[in-house]
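Key idea: predict the complex, not the pieces.
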Amino acid sequence: MLIVMDSAASAEDIRRVVESVRGLGLQAHPIPGAQRTAIGITGNRGAVDAGAFENLPGVAEVIPVSAPYKLVSREAKRENTVVSVGGVPVGGERLAVVAGPCAIESEAQALEIGRQVRAAGATLYRGGAFKPRTSPYSFQGLGREGLEILGRVRAETGLPVVTEVLDTETVDLVAEYADCLQVGARNMQNFSLLRRLGRLRKPVLLKRGMSATIEELLLSAEYLLAEGNYDVILCERGVRTFVDHTRNTLDLSAIPYVKRISHLPIVVDPSHGTGKRDKVLPLSRAAIAVGADGLLIEVHHQPEAALSDGPQAILPEMLRQLMDETRRLAPVIGRTI
Amino acid sequence: MLIVMDSAASAEDIRRVVESVRGLGLQAHPIPGAQRTAIGITGNRGAVDAGAFENLPGVAEVIPVSAPYKLVSREAKRENTVVSVGGVPVGGERLAVVAGPCAIESEAQALEIGRQVRAAGATLYRGGAFKPRTSPYSFQGLGREGLEILGRVRAETGLPVVTEVLDTETVDLVAEYADCLQVGARNMQNFSLLRRLGRLRKPVLLKRGMSATIEELLLSAEYLLAEGNYDVILCERGVRTFVDHTRNTLDLSAIPYVKRISHLPIVVDPSHGTGKRDKVLPLSRAAIAVGADGLLIEVHHQPEAALSDGPQAILPEMLRQLMDETRRLAPVIGRTI
Amino acid sequence: MLIVMDSAASAEDIRRVVESVRGLGLQAHPIPGAQRTAIGITGNRGAVDAGAFENLPGVAEVIPVSAPYKLVSREAKRENTVVSVGGVPVGGERLAVVAGPCAIESEAQALEIGRQVRAAGATLYRGGAFKPRTSPYSFQGLGREGLEILGRVRAETGLPVVTEVLDTETVDLVAEYADCLQVGARNMQNFSLLRRLGRLRKPVLLKRGMSATIEELLLSAEYLLAEGNYDVILCERGVRTFVDHTRNTLDLSAIPYVKRISHLPIVVDPSHGTGKRDKVLPLSRAAIAVGADGLLIEVHHQPEAALSDGPQAILPEMLRQLMDETRRLAPVIGRTI
Amino acid sequence: MLIVMDSAASAEDIRRVVESVRGLGLQAHPIPGAQRTAIGITGNRGAVDAGAFENLPGVAEVIPVSAPYKLVSREAKRENTVVSVGGVPVGGERLAVVAGPCAIESEAQALEIGRQVRAAGATLYRGGAFKPRTSPYSFQGLGREGLEILGRVRAETGLPVVTEVLDTETVDLVAEYADCLQVGARNMQNFSLLRRLGRLRKPVLLKRGMSATIEELLLSAEYLLAEGNYDVILCERGVRTFVDHTRNTLDLSAIPYVKRISHLPIVVDPSHGTGKRDKVLPLSRAAIAVGADGLLIEVHHQPEAALSDGPQAILPEMLRQLMDETRRLAPVIGRTI
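Result:
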């Protein structure tokens, strides 16, 4: 259930509603908007009686929510959420470009790529310290050492960093170094991890699972918001289908669909979404044109020597071209970069 | 096998190679390019001996083709094929926008929509006279009467028309009225129909099957070229996956993939590709940005009353907005409209 | 709409209802059952008024049908349909085993395999004279010569034959030789072919399309019944998914689902359903156990030399083992062989 | 790499090979078989020189392993692995039937169902104390209280219990009560959880992910074996496809495929595999017929009141029928129950 407050409602009105909700043994989630505040109610098994709230001062409307997600929905908050990642806004007018290597392999590699992506105009840096690998015998990342390197990349380039967290045990460690914690496709329904990240006060980038519907993606985001973390960025990274000319099938229709039903920002990862270097630029253009809030791009200066996902990493000069194309596309759809 | 001729090879040289091929009981397909002519060889069960040709005058190179398709491949022809549909080029610098109703319902409806799509700037008209319908009890199209109406729409609007052909029996009838014959997704592997259309001298728009790989799409096009019809336009219209927020999943990565391995033009149908009116514009922008040669758009002035596929038809004013967006996107990717 | 007649209704009562239906410009399809006759009404665009029929003599009940298919549904006919293929019943207590080569390659090959499958206990013979091939350069079948060979196989082995028909042009030719005409997966929605076969008086084996839902399969069957051909056998042959260890994913849950909602028999093709010789026997056992009415099995005495689909053909001795296993499984599920 | 020992090799020979492997900084995994022992080598980034081992006493053969999985492969161990779950063998001649409610809801419910499934002949009890739920607002299980109830069900019925573990934090708690820990489909690639369970000395039932290939499933199992836990049972529970008449598409061809390439037992879950009560029995028969080592079945005495997955739970009397059918099928495929 959602309680929508009058635009003239006072802080005291809101406090009173929150208390009434808690008095019924339920959780109240005030969601401030530009015009008015909505208060999401969770914790109820069945229906909640609207009558308990609609006569309280400052209450404009009580909406029974039929969609399974509540706090992530546009009904709960009409304005787009803009998430600040180390000071860089994601979800607003300005497009975000998160670029960097799949995995941090060494300080030299990470810094070299960092300098190049900053020079190209990327706004955030990405790089994996903990890598989820299909095989136990593949390179699993540098771990803590990788995080320390990420810290040095940020210090030198000034770019806030996004990096993946694999399990609850390492959440605190990763949060020490990361400006935004990424949840990978394989962990989209790792609910224990989501709950733990929901109690964190750092942005989370949540990737769509390999065969997840948008409803499932939004419900996973709902786990984060229900615990109190509203700084969530969604990410479309391709789904698994019969199609064999790309590694995954990038589902770009997901972008306008999410934009319509949710207030959360959504970015696109054409590197995993196609798995092919020569498809990254055209699909990046398409992602911007369809309305994504940004891109997540794997860049490597020596992709043939990369320890992970080399065939999909683009070269720094390709990133420069991508940024150039994005700069020219942005105004057509009313965005900047 | 492909025989690539010298750029200086004479018509006589080409004739001599063709005769040698036929002398071996095989078919020769000369494919003239801007610089040089290639000659595709088909009809062989196993390998053909390259030695039989490489010493003939004017022969630059003999390439054993490992891909299962030959005539549709970039190896056979380096330059993009530009198909002329009633004088409108598809596949060149200029983007094609094929717009009109799903089905021709009446002369009034067809003409009204025709006037509006021409006013919006569409370059070709589409409308179905024969409709393939999942249920035998659904509206199956006006048939011959629909074709006659299409003729009147062309006469009045000046727009060449694209319309679907369902079977070999009606190929001649449809060809009398259509400037381009469309093969629907369900017929992509109707090989008898493809062979018959291959012997026609009219352009064919071939839609990707609902679960076809790109290799299968290109092999179906190969049926057309192998019979002598080189005026083939491919069409991506979405594939069937588990995804439930759209009717099909539009596979935009197919566009750069086809562009790399084939010389044929490829357009995108975001109407069937999403099945949702409010997704048509964003996915049209994405299709243009990814490099498609054009769009196939369902337009209806009264979609709630449409006899077929109403929920995905856009209104004429939405087409005007789409054309406007396309006009601004085109120069970014080096195209015109 | 379905009109269910009293078990005591007379032929005259039925005739009167049929005439009333026709009087409204609609088609009537009397479907005799063991206990009672139902009369399907088709041809209506919207709802038909039940009142027009429910007071006629002999009418027990008038059922508005909400499912998009009518004549194929269990509501239209409670008893299982048993189709006689050249005297061999398909859909009754006895399991049907249709076995033979993918393609007829020569009289020697066809007869040799025919003798062996008869010896193993197969009840019907299969073999393709017209082959739908993804590539125009693959072996396309022997055509009329293949049909003549099929005639000789039947004469020598006594087994009725099932063979594929590709287009309307060859329906009459194929019907001359075949006891049952097969519609392949790629033609499941070739509605012109279905309508033509609906006017034939020979059984049709209709294969599920590569990405067809069961509703779409049943609606394609409805095309046949709506034209008057009630002798339809459905066939599950695997669907296309991301799964890569088999060529297709055999959807065995389709069998009990079809059995519940339709009266038509359904057989399983584990040869195409898996594309792997060593999976044919286990999946044949599973198909029988799940309730299929029979099997469609590719057999070749020299699979390594087969002109088509060699890797999935089983050897004659494997068919003998399959028949032996089927014989032991049948009684467990109340069937015979 | 695999080192296969002579059947006459002594314990001392094996010890010496293990030491040589460790001397190179690698891990050695001795895998005793009925005839001979194999020693898997892991921890190597590139190729290992076979020469270092093939001249050691007792070494029969050194096999470079090209498949990405090693310890789970038939090459590593020819004989089927039989896992003992609280004394009940899974993977041998005798079929295992794991039955019980989706979620433990109360002691009364759990015990009532426990008595009924034991009476029907089930060999193991299943029931969830920790439930992974798509929505944060769905019933998440009774947690520790559920585990305690499971302990009482085991005490009263004598059936060993299988229950799901969701995260590393609760592994020890769950292991205290469970005879076998289940990893759900959503956690199949939760590698931190797999590593932790690999260090446990309790059997693990590993479910295939919703869109996992068999190679990915086996590599996830490899995580468990590589950490030293060889008591792994695989489970096919359906994959996500476009098919809409069942909740998932049960991929029964996976069973003979896994059986050929791996020594691990594999069971089938037709409850999640179909999501429909009326499909559970036919698909259970099919699973047994195809060669599964057992079944995982959701049973509820009041499915309409179940807190989770009611529509797929079968009634106790249906389980009795299922057991009866299984008893009659088992001998046909050389199994017992």
